[in-house]
Amino acid sequence: MAFELPALPYAQDALAPHISAETLEYHYGKHHQTYVTNLNNLTAGTEHENASLEDVIMNSEAGLFNNSAQVWNHTFYWNSMAPNGGGAPTGEVADAIGSAFGGYDAFVEKFKEAATTQFGSGWAWLVDAGSGLEIMKTSNADLPMKHNAKALLTIDVWEHAYYIDFRNARPNYITTFLDSLVNWDFVAQNMAS
Ligand code: MN
Fold it and tell me: What is the extent of the structural domain holding 26?
């Protein structure tokens, strides 16, 4: 069965004014779709054709890894955001962030630093690496599952994620993501899974 582009978890204009419908039209409708199309072209007729997306990611390199991981990363990123999201979490997520970083403000500082300093294209993550929460940054399509860590939250810092809405101002995009978009319910689900 061919790999499919998952539906967005909200309407294309639901993250506005923070992330515009135009950004999602291109980022989801063009970029994410292209990774899915490439993945299907690369796996058709191969031993990966009927594998799970995770199995393809863990058993591939080069173009097949890049496209399969980018399919996974973008689905995870859409779910990392929600309309009216952001701000400090509550409950078990707040407790885990407190234990790992000493509080929400310290988490914000570390997450911003990772997302800002990822040179060129990539991702910043909140992960569980087995002994509590950590911040990770990865280049291009690389992702936590390749480093024995479980992803809890991600921000895409490829320029295509923010250039329409924020132009070159990546730090403003990161601040907006944290203040207005983070889906802490998704983080809680990932922590519990
Ligand atoms: Mn992207």
Answer: 21-79
